[in-house]
Amino acid sequence: MWRHLFGADHRVLVPGTDSSGQAEQWPRALGPRPNPAVFDWLPGSSGIPWLGDGPALASLAQAGADTEAPAPSAVNAVHDKGFAAQIARVEGYEPKCLRDLSATYSPQDLADPGPWLHGLAQHLAQWPDWIGGAFTLKPRMGSSGRGRVSGLAQALEADRIRAALPRLAQRGGAVLEPWLTRETDLSVMLHIASPGDEAKARGKDRSKAQPPITLLGAGEQRIAPSGVYLGHLGEIDSRGRVFSGGPWEENMREAAVAVATRAREAGYWGPCGIDGFSFRGPRQQGEEPRATAPVRLRPIVEFNARFTVGIVAVGLIRRALASIKTELGLEPGERRGFLFALDPPPGW
After folding, report:
1. What is the Cα–Cα distance from 319 to 2, expressed in whole angstroms?
2. Which of 163, 164, 215, 305 could form a disulfide with 79 if both were Cys (CB 3.0 to 4.6 A apart)?
3. Is pLDDT larger for residue 327 or for residue 209?
4. For 72-77+182-341, which CATH class?
């Protein structure tokens, strides 16, 4: 699906496979195949990786692609889940009820399991009762919930956690977080302009320059209990703009721009996505025990320094916009709901 965002003259390179000659199977639902890329910032002839780490850039260089990309060190620095956790605290987007509950561990921290496990137990013992002791340890590098370790503070499985520490260390360390009762998973998709575009903005080619940060869209995510991505829900208008359609729309967009700004300052540019979620927080003092716990927002959970499936969804919606407007009778000023799913649920 990713390749459908690019111009008609693109090639796909999958390292370790002979994939460059595979013909594109253009979906009829998207209408006639247009020549240009769906986004102005997608290159016409240069190579562009899904995730711009060292191996990906090396594969593109070997294939002869003229790739313009941020330094892999900048990509890794901001793709680290510890970066998102730090920015949430510094920028004031960490919910008050969650302050001082999370922790970030380096590979060196995990190298001595005995003292580290003792410190983990002490840290968990300080958590408030409303958390219920549920926690998760996520690898600092990775996605889709792969490699995480969950547990309960009151029944700490030290041997199982100890066995997972080498794996977590290989993936940059770990982030400790409370395992909360989620209400809605949310995401915002953005693009950060390259230094070349910034130079255009300062020079004579201002009309050709991209804005420093472009909001591509926002949506509600469908996530499996394991953390695997299932799809996006949202709303679309007649201009192809994509919205989550929920009460946290503006909060998520504001927080996403704040993180993207920090990532830009750290040397990253290109496509990116910010994940967040709403959750059941603690009851207010004096509330009835049976009262429903209030819903809070944690707008900054992860910063994905790469393309995301959400960006693909936004791009495919724009590709199909003409037929969507016709089939749904979508007029200016109106919105229609949509579901983008890798495996649509029954009834869709």
Report:
1. 12
2. 305
3. 327
4. alpha beta
